[in-house]
Design a protein that fits this description.
Elements (H helix, E strand, L loop, with lengths): L5 H20 L7 H29 L5 H23 L5 H32 L2 H23 L1
The structure holds fe (ii) ion (FE2) (2 copies).
One fe (ii) ion binds next to helix 1, helix 2 and helix 4.
Length: 152
């Protein structure tokens, strides 16, 4: 959507992530779909986080009042990335995989909820509508490039 703000655009991705998380949760250890779905989720979330850092969080980082919030979210991205790497290296059919997956899932759901309820609200106070739309356009440009990099 041409007139979308960065917040609406990011929320759109978050909703997609929520759906993917539930789909993976329903897979079984021996199902082929688990690894494939997980790989798609990991690529998608890695690209989302990178493009989010290049747009919203870079802008927030430049504002002394929002710097701490920005750093908090970026640190969480790193934690989630580490969990995703760990899951990727585990045996997908092992009994421990789903338990570890659910820990990551809870963390990620907490992360995006905090972004929507706290980070976006704080950031919106300092941004003009024009900047919010401009950031969405930049995000839209960066996401495909980040997806390619994340898939490598
Ligand atoms: Fe994020
Ligand atoms: Fe996000």
């Amino acid at each position: 959507m041409a007139d979308q703000t960065i917040f609406a655009r990011l929320k759109e991705d978050h909703d997609k992530h929520r759906t993917m998380l539930d789909l993976i949760d329903k897979t079984h250890g021996d199902s082929d779909g688990r690894e494939e779905l997980f790989t798609r989720f990991k690529t998608e979330v890695t690209a989302h986080a990178a493009a989010e850092e290049e747009t919203l969080y870079a802008t927030m980082l430049a504002d002394p009042d929002l710097r701490d919030k920005s750093q908090h979210s970026v640190a969480e991205h790193k934690e989630i990335e580490d969990c995703l790497e760990e899951l990727e290296e585990m045996d997908f059919s092992s009994t421990g995989w789903l338990a570890r997956y659910r820990t990551m899932k809870d963390r990620y759901l907490h992360h995006i909820e905090e972004e929507e309820d706290e980070m976006f609200v704080a950031a919106a106070k300092g941004l003009t509508r024009e900047t919010e739309k401009q950031l969405a356009k930049t995000f839209e440009k960066r996401k495909p490039a980040e997806l390619e990099m994340a898939a490598e």
